[in-house]
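ok posting inputs for the thiamine diphosphate job
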Amino acid sequence: MPNHKKKNAKALFALGNEAVVEGALIAGCTFYAGYPITPSSEIMEVMAARLPRIPDGAFIQMEDEIASLGAVIGASLAGRKAMTATSGPGFSLMQENLGFACMTEVPLVIVNVMRGGPSTGLPTSPAQGDVQQARWGTHGDHPIIVLSASDVKECMEMTIQAFNFAEKYRTPVILLIDEITAHTRERIDVPGPEAFEIFNRSYPSVPPEWYKPYEDTMRGVSPMPPIGSGYRHHVTGLTHDVMGFPTQQPEEIKSLMERLFRKIDQFFPDIMLVEEYRTEDAEIGVIAYGSVARSAHLAIDMAREQGYKAGLLKLKTLFPFPKTYVDKLAHRCSRIIVPEMNMGQMSREVKRVASKTTSVRTINRIDGQIITPSQIYKSISQG
Amino acid sequence: MSDVTELIHHYLRHNKKFPHVFCAGCGHGIVLGSLIRSIHGLGLEKDDVCIVAGIGCSGRIAAYVDFNTVHTTHGRALTFATGIKMANPKLKVIAIMGDGDAFSIGGNHLIHAARRNIGVTALVLNNYIYGMTGGQCSATTPQGANTQTTPFGQMEKSFDLVDLTRAAGANGVYRGSVFHVNMLDRLVSTAIERPGFNLVEIISPCHTQYGRKNKYKTAVDMYSWLKHTCVKREKYEAMKPEDRKDKLPIGTFAEHDTKGLEELYADLRTSLCPQPTEAVEGSGK
Ligand SMILES: Cc1ncc(C[n+]2csc(CCOP(=O)(O)OP(=O)(O)O)c2C)c(N)n1
Ligand code: SF4
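and the output
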């Protein structure tokens, strides 16, 4: 047997943004539509060069972000794994179509490389200002999966994860990266696709006449045939019945909405991803995500050297909020610190879960500057 | 069974909860008929057709026909259609939009779809008004017309959809009317068959919202207005300028045979991929 692992593996000295593309291609992405915006543009530029070189690959630069997400939804309905990338202002423009994708259960990935804001704000400075926009930016009630990445390797891995969740749960998945992670160049090993578990949406096994496009199933996720495969059905953003036709019947509305929530709720243990560092005996907990988690990691080492029992909970999934892990940490620690490059978009979630058990302190920075290890260390050491 | 009944049985969705939403006499129903006759006449398989619609009365057409149908967000039908066509160029992608949908909120997408010549057929059902939201003005409401939001008469000029689309670079630009049905069938069939971006502006009256406020109280008033206003393009061009006033030319306004964007992209891929596979053409897997 030839060793495919070796053959397909390669080492790269890549930007976070470039690693996103590697991850997407490993996951099987064959369609990209987007509109340039700093600090996400490299994702689009590399896609433009790579996609026409693969069978079935298609890339298109659209006239704006509304159009980009529209095209991505169309391509996904036609059976492709599809993605787009943007930054805050572009992400805002995508919100209506994001709601459409939630409602019609279209798998896709949106990477948002956050920049400082509000408005056009700080295009080239790091920030984590879109956390709540990712959760609540579109209209109406809906669950959503929001992931984050803190280094270049993770940009690749979490992009794969984003596609996997999108396909498994038939839902849009948002990957939040900050400018530091996106524009850091690091050496990473890119294994061949066989090194990863890759999920594909399920395809109906019944004959077309029996197919119900929005039927409830054990997992709450219905199979999804591509347009043109014989399973003709109606896709609409209007509240629909199991056949996909608009409905105003309270019973049908209720069962659709409940299923949308349940297909995510039921699988919290699968979706909520975290990484713990020196938390076993921790008395002071730090909860961080994105590039800030790297500063926090160093701060923990600094603190341990000085005898402080500090530990880090790094959030890789931001939503659904990993409350079980936060709750556990809160019970263990006399104090929790949440550093983030915004005014407290994640710490309010932490407080919601942990403030009854322990005290929660925040470090907030919105001046376009990085949160340093010593800044976090200082907070750990000031009892 | 009559031919018409047979067509209805074959192409309309029986599991859909009829009745439809259109007012009696609405032009949109006639467009629906024309669409079905055209697809039937071209001998297309149902699975090869994808109908993408915007939001508005016009957008509801999608729900009634037994094709792959996508009822998108307001103004964005062409963006979805672009993604579908790029992902699977084998599909005949037909976008159905209202005038508000295509030229007000979606105006940017329309000129870009025309410019990039994506292989999509756009049917714009122009009723000069926002039907579904209760009769507000749109980008095609004629100057002076009364609507819910122009109670003192529309002051702004309106778009000429044909001129605009032609200038933006579409392969095919056509205008028809729901009164001139045989011609409409021909225009729609041609637009569906041809490569690249093809648009048919279809004058489709809304007596409920537009007519009521602008001296065409009944559907019949609107249709007789169409009968007297629309003239074939050739005839229109032969008319004296003073006679052209109040007339609307219908027919073919542009026809080029440039390859659609999706075809150019497939060519690029063939030149770049070392071993093009079957899948290159877009199997839609
Ligand atoms: C983003 C957004 N804005 C506004 C609306 C409300 N809306 C629904 S249909 C419509 C206008 C429809 O007019 P047109 O496209 O001309 O189609 P018609 O109903 O006349 O066929 C509007 C404004 C919406 N659904 N979405
Ligand atoms: S409101 Fe106007 S456009 Fe809408 S269905 Fe009635 S007649 Fe047709």
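notes: The pocket of thiamine diphosphate (ligand 1) is lined by residues B 55-58, 74, 98-101, 125, 127, 129-133, 138 (CB under 6 Å). Confidence is low (pLDDT under 50) at residues 279-285 of chain B.
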